Amino acid sequence: MSSLGGERLERAALTAAGIEGDRTHGVFHAESGEIAYPGRDRRWAALPRALSRLRADGALEVSTDGSIWGDPAGPRQAAALSAFLGFPARVRRYAGEGPRPRYNRAPIHLLTTSALRTLQTILPDSVIDARRFRPNILVDTPEELDGIPEYALRGRRFRIGGVTLRGTIPCARCAFTTLAQPGLPEDREVFRALLHRFGRDLGLYCEVEGAGSLRHGDAVLQPEPAPA
């Protein structure tokens, strides 16, 4: 769900629109209809500390404390979310004729552990964790590989498990990367480093050119040659 903490999946099905069940709902101000914008408006800054997950039957659940979960459309969870934020809020499903995601540049966002290690080297006192950057796919790269190797996949088609992807453009970052999450403190130095040392980008957007499924541990197969 947009803006809330997500979950780590052992297996995921990908379609042309991305991971099934991803970004299907958003949080809105119940009175004004305004969509959540944690990276820009401090009123929403607590939202990444709340959590969302999908049950085995595909139903969405949310929690504000990690222990009590429930249907976000139910009165109990709606009241808990409103109390958590300090103003009336509700969860709405994105729909063709209804509200749309605030930010939806690409169906898949891929990030490597090399990119995280490179940022950690620049910010040795910061807690650099993949959750700050919300990738759909985190690729574990060898310790000796530095820099941001995913950029070499721009314009190239490659496979992971049963899925074919094509790298497009770097992922532009915002102040969401600075916000506190469970186990992660607020840290404004993260976005400053991204802005001044990385041109604001980290990670790679991808299109899904061949739908299929991914499992934890699937290898990234040799990409096609880069276009001339």
Automatic annotation (TrEMBL):
| Range of residues in the leader sequence | none
The UniProt GO MF terms for this protein read: catalytic activity; molybdenum ion binding; pyridoxal phosphate binding
What region holds the MOSC domain? 54-223
What Pfam families is this protein classified in? MOSC (PF03473)
Record-annotated membrane-spanning stretches: none
Q: What InterPro entries does the entry give? A: MoCF_Sase_C, Pyrv_Knase-like_insert_dom_sf
Query: What protein name does the entry list?
Result: MOSC domain-containing protein
